[in-house]
Amino acid sequence: MILEGDEDFAIVEQVISGEKELFRLLIKRHERAVYGMGMSFFHNAEDASDFTQEVFLKVFRFLSGFKGQSRFSTWLYKIAYNTAISSIYRKKDYQSLAENEITPDNNTPERQLLRSFARDAILNAVGDLPERFRICVDLFFFYHRSYQEIEAITGFPVNTVKSHVFRAKKLLREKLADLAMFDPGGI
Predict the structure, then answer these.
(1) Of 158, 152, 156, 138, which is closest to residue 76 (Cα–Cα)?
(2) What is the CATH number of the domain that holds 62?
(3) Cα torsion for 6, 140, 56, 78, to the nearest 10°?
(4) Which residues span the domain enclosing 74?
(5) Burial level of 181, CB count in 10 A (0-12/13-18/19+)?
(6) Could you report the per-residue pLDDT of 9-64, keeping only the tens digit for each?
(7) What's the domain count of the chain?
(8) Predicted TM-score (pTM) of this structure
């Protein structure tokens, strides 16, 4: 079963049938997301770059195993996630993508200061979440993956993913409740 709307599938078919130079199109489309995942796991550009290269080498090697039963990006993220997890088990050092995603906007100096304070508070709160919650929150909010895709990527059952996201949001809401008092109109 090939999913409708997965533009990458046509490229995959062409690469498998011998047009290997087209693989660079898949890299170009997904390199930034894989690199971002690498940064969240390894915290430095060199390791994230090495991770990205390793992931795409694995993807190329196993490309014929992609059958189109999920979106290509889901299949790719599963390979990336498993590669990162196998490396991280030695380090136990995961950091949320939220650090790269929350950026202050350029209003007044006071607003910038409030946003900076809010950003730091959010990063600390996300950083305090249990690792399994952080991973689900990152994939859901920062990679915009569905619960089913997160299940395919992490191996957590869908209900567990939903529970992790729900519980993470509840913990974040509790931790960040005092933040609302600084800017009632929203920070």
Answers:
(1) 152
(2) 1.10.1740.10
(3) -90
(4) 1-95
(5) exposed
(6) 889 999 999 999 999 999 999 999 999 888 888 888 998 999 999 999 999 999 98
(7) 2
(8) 0.58
